[in-house]
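Reopening this ticket.

The earlier resolution said the output was attached, but the attachment link was broken on my side. Pasting everything inline this time so it's all in one place.
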Amino acid sequence: MASTALPAADLLPVGPSANLAYRMVRGIGIPLLRLCFNFDVSGRENLPRSGNYVVIANHLNWLDEFALLYLFPVEPRLHFLADPTILVTRKFQWWLVRTTGGYVPVVRERHGDISLFKHVDRCLAVGGAVAIFPEGNYGPAEGGLMAFHKGFAHFAIKAGVPVIPVGLSGTKDLWFRKRVQVVIGKAISTTGQDPAALTELAFDRVKDLMPVYTETGGRKLLRKQLTHLF
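Inline output:
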């Protein structure tokens, strides 16, 4: 297959097991993250110990995905929704995606496409975990939270898996050794929930979890490079 071709999502290796490439990327990436940023993490006791789930978080920049990969267990493998039409123009990211397989393709122009629901449902059905940023895009500023789309709620309710809310602060603008705050909330049960109510509850939960952002003074080394790294 040509490197610029979009893959058939059904052929991507979604599932709970972490392949060797995924473990290697984590093994290299996590020490690099710890070197570059100062992570202040609360709520580690809320990390799931068994079963699969849907993770939701506010979204500010590229570091959000890597922070979740760093914090959540290696298995069940965490899958992100990503736009392959953008990835194919970014060779390094595309190589990571194709190698690790921890993603479900979402073409932005096809929101509402039933195939997306099939792919996410399949990932959860076979035991994989899914991470979704319900705002659907980067938030405009630290401390702000845009309205949530209901997709994550539909997926979690249909699969009968809990929703794990996460609040992030400090990832919008990045520099070397910047403090990044992450708060992991208690799991939200989907039993007896409907999508609208679950979406509203999850929005309130993430908003409550988001730490207050305070920008520190001093030198901001590699600010431009790290903010726009991906």
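Reporter confirms the inline version is readable. Residues 20-36 form the longest helix (17 residues). The mean pLDDT is 87.
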